[in-house]
Here is the input.
Amino acid sequence: MRKVKVLRVMLLLVLVSEIFDIAPLYSHEFWTPVSLFNWFTAPLPIKFCVFELSCFLLLVTTRNKRPVARPVLKAIYVSFGTAMFVTVYGLVTGGSYLPLYTLLHAWSFGLAFALTAMAVLSNADDFRQLDDAIVLAACWRSAWGIVFYLKVRNYDWSRLPSWMTTHEDSVLFSVALIVLVSRAIESRSKKSLRNLLLGTPLILMAMKVNNRRLVWATVIASLLIIYFSLPATAKVAKRINRAMRTIAPALALYVAIGWSNPTGVFKPLATLTSMFSGKRENGEVDLSTKARDNENFGCVTMMLERPILGTGFGHEWLEIDKSGTVPLTVFPMYHFSPHNSIMALLAFCGGLGLAGLWMVIPISIFLNTLVYRRSRDPTERTVAITGVTTAVAYLNQAYGDMGFIHPMPSILLGLSIASAARLSVTSGVWSRPGTNRARTIGNQPSAS
Here is the structure.
């Protein structure tokens, strides 16, 4: 129990951190208490930070005798092996070693964090404590992001940055919202409802001022997943269906009228239409979208040339149009890491390499879904559905904005992977007496 609390504090600190593989937040405009803990996440000369080293220490010193699902562990080991193979293959075929840390660090540590969470956390209540840290971190980042927005706007509107916190906060905000929503649905307690009513407006406001379109797509997808995962006989599902039957005609009419001209009362649709039209909310051509289309075309060309194994890590993606290129002074690794991480991995790893690298994601989604479908424990169900939506949020971020190379999404995904491995066994939906479907973490014998 003590190590669970330690890991919860560590996760909270890293999620609210102002320095973690990114430039300091808030443009040095003001001081926040979290800056006192920058040493915890600031990279050391050995390329790791204190948080990562602490996780490794927890992993090697914790002996958890409770079994976890073997498929998850095997998929993690396959992912490590695939990453090593693609790296060596890329170097042998003329790739550079310079981008390897950028490409591999976040994903590799995400898997290591998954193993750490499996070792430290034993049941749904343990995972619930880490979900508490996610919600608290999201509320903290939301509050300071809003304060930053108000301060800079009142001081000098021309100095207003493009975003208030970070790109990868889209994953944090969406996961925290789903934790609040799923708890209110599953437990239906006064506390969960109060937390939902208090936390949701704050996080939604931060999502708006943070100005990241991707987060809205993630939240909508996550809510749809919860809705379609609910049993048809559940009271909540019936209430939602009744409400949807009432508002669906008006909502359809609203979207039909405002989609082509999202102004005035239809302005909330502008964020969604801009994702599909390639234009900003003000109607101007989005040069960022144009540049990313160029990246995708280059990656597709590479995939067609080497569909099985790709080029290996360390090679540049094919830049067809250089008019929208990013200067090396802005992002030195740009030509090794396009925005669409999924396209990039298909180009670098090929279909076979991507399957080995990311096999653990669909396996974790399957097991978390299995727990949610079959478990009757509200805490297990909440943690499980959060794990499913976290994986979806990660994939959405990877597809839209370099989610593969940023630590925060990988850490949250690691927690999702760990919940699948642990809860599928503790809930009884995967491990069964007399089978060898589960094993323990560390130097413990198999549970079979």
Strands lie at 67-69, 438-440. DSSP finds 16 helices and two strands in the chain. Residues 316 and 336 are 5 Å apart (CA to CA).
